[in-house]
Amino acid sequence: MRIPFKADDYFSNEVNSAFNHIQDAYLEGAKLYLEKSEVPVMLGDGSISQSTTFELSKIIVYYEKLIDSLDGWVSTGISKSNTDDLHRIYFQISQYINKYRIYGYFGIQFHALPYYRVNKRVIEIQKELSQIAEKAANIFSSLAEKGNTMVLHELQKLGYSELEFEDLFTKLFDDQELVRGLERKAQSLEEQLPEFEQMRISKNQLYAELNNLLIELYQISPVLIDYNRMMQGEEGLVTYFDIETIRNQKMARGDPYVNTERVTEEHANHISNVLNELAIRLTKTTII
Fold it and tell me: Domain end: 212, 244, 262, which one?
């Protein structure tokens, strides 16, 4: 079951209160490691602008320090995932308390946006790529004209030049050897234009150089979001906790349902004390 619980019994109230402390401590602590700074960037059109970002390494250091401070908890370590420009960094923890197992999740969800470094070379590369594209268009036009002439000549030799389009299409579809022969002829035309291959090499080199001038800036809203908002792709800080009942101690087999009204006061205090201690650890780890 996910905390906070909707019930109004002793166990629910104690655990919900402790979880609120965890949320508050995590928000205040993590925000210190997500401070934004302005950086100059270059846009695709060559104009220079200002954008903001936070240092990813700082939040990772925060998580590492937090994991090291959590005695009694088992951690999965820091993980990363991304879908397009949406990124996550997170870690999970778990602990057995009496006949219950607690899972915790701490993470951030943010966007990574690409920009160019402020460097005149970006504009120079774009101009060179434009020149290559223009030259390639002219070569392709010449190549296409030669190719059409070559294909027509080959079809005339085979006696197919007078066929209607539908009949010619059927012939090409059925006669794969004819198709391969025409492809070889077309390839020989390309080989007569060595500058075409050189342009391809130059283009790839320029794109590689342009990619090296890219930087990623990280955008996040320093607010708490729950699991559902995280799955909807919102930016923010995420923490959630689940508790399950262990039905088979030997097999460590759990049941996601917890009858909160039947949890003893002793067990309720034990669990809430562990969660409150976690909140204290979060507070102490906020010192940079």
Answer: 212
